[in-house]
Amino acid sequence: MSVKLHPYVVFLPVEQKDKILSAIFGSKAGVDVLRFSLKQGIAKNIYQKDLVKSLNYSNKTIIENLKTLTKLGVLTELMEKNEKEGRIIWVKAYQLTDLGKWFALLLAEESELTEHEQAEILESLFRTYVKQVKDLAEELKINRKTLEEIFKQEMKNNP
């Protein structure tokens, strides 16, 4: 039996691993916020009013989840300046952080992400992975040149 596997990778801050996993997967609302972001496009801003309209949760539940996900680094909170009927109003908006995008990717079907979004996520994952390997190599006193050679060899190898 041949099964197509998708390479899911998520880097977690060690000190907040349990809190992050619990905030997202311990609450259906947290998962639904990520799914909402996937449906609208992961690069687009998330607005509380849109979540309340689209998801079957109270405003209070949405706010609590947005605050928790922001505190844990899954979302970034922004303030947008809008003009409405000649008045300037400030609106809170949220965006997925790299960590948030990785979690969204765990939930996504490949068809839900554009090729550009998939490439952006892969590049971000690769950059983070390389940084982590570099730091670990320094701790283990592995020469950087050795890692560079391994990378070059693997990039030359045919699939």
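The record above closes out task 2.4. Task 2.5 opens with a second protein, given below.
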Amino acid sequence: MKIVISAMGKEKESILDRRFGRCEYFQIFDTETSEFKVVTNKAVNANGGAGIAAANQVIDEGANVLITGNLGPNAYELIEKAGIDAYSCASVPVHQAIEMYQNNQLENIKAAGRAHHGMHH
């Protein structure tokens, strides 16, 4: 199973970034091989549609679980359609977020958060 975490850095000690579409990195942990992989979020500097681009990148990585802060409406819809379980977590080190997930201590994201700048109402 692949767990994707939005992160501020490339280390396991790096802090989880609660911004999904604008996080700098995605850390990917494979529970079967215990391998860690870090990819740069391609949407970090996007003018608009960062959540959509980030969601597509997470889907392309084959994620089963996403741990972040919150998801905007478009990202939420894509993640949900892809069948990825999304969880909300505080700004804690990435390795702690994974432990919290494995201990069922994280809250499932069941609705989209507010849309951020770049979205027109």
